[in-house]
Design goal:
The protein has about 200 residues and is α+β, with helices and mostly antiparallel strands. The chain has a single domain, classed as 3-Layer(aba) Sandwich (Glutaredoxin), CATH 3.40.30.10. Helices cover about 35% and strands about 25% of the residues. The chain has an 8-stranded mixed β-sheet with strand order 1-10-9-4-5-6-2-3. Strands 7-8 form a two-stranded antiparallel ribbon. α2 packs across α6. It is globular and about 50 Å long. The N and C termini lie far apart (about 50 Å). About 10% of the residues have low confidence.
Amino acid sequence: MQRRTLLHNLLSLPALLVLGACEQGPSFNTTDVTGASYGPALRLKDQHGQVRTLADFRGKVVAIFFGYTNCPDVCPTSLMMLKEALQLMSPAEAERVQVLFVSVDPARDTPERLTMYMNAFDPRFLALTGSDAEIAAVAKEFKVYYEKKGDIAGGRYTIDHSAGCYLFGPDGRARLFARHGETAARVAADLKLLLTQT
């Protein structure tokens, strides 16, 4: 009797493993941060002067990246990766993705400069800015570090800052974090997967 029960349990194991895998949900390439409370404090003006919050983009996947236009490497590399990720998607899929670039350098990143910078990558990308206090509040909520280095008074400085992209699902919830250096193909696959979820 014990041998029959053991045999039955062993034969049932593959089915249970398959069922368990199905219950775990989709497998993402980037880091799952579902449940993190990022986003509520995000209320900044875009490069066109329009106030934006995450609620404006419900139904879309939103990619949020913090940086500044004078960044020599991390920012342009990351924005180019996001541009390439959208190019790996169908036009209909890409239209349902909104990239938001949050400037941590409001003193130098004027609306005009931000417009030129976004257009250099993709005119659909939006740049967000605000006062020093507004930027600090949003960065704190996202646990983003940034600090000016160099001749601050003379305006000749760089900014050390966290690198990575936050991905929000169509329901407005934070879902994934893509570390700097992720490939466009891996991020595109995750964006497509997020678009299938409500």
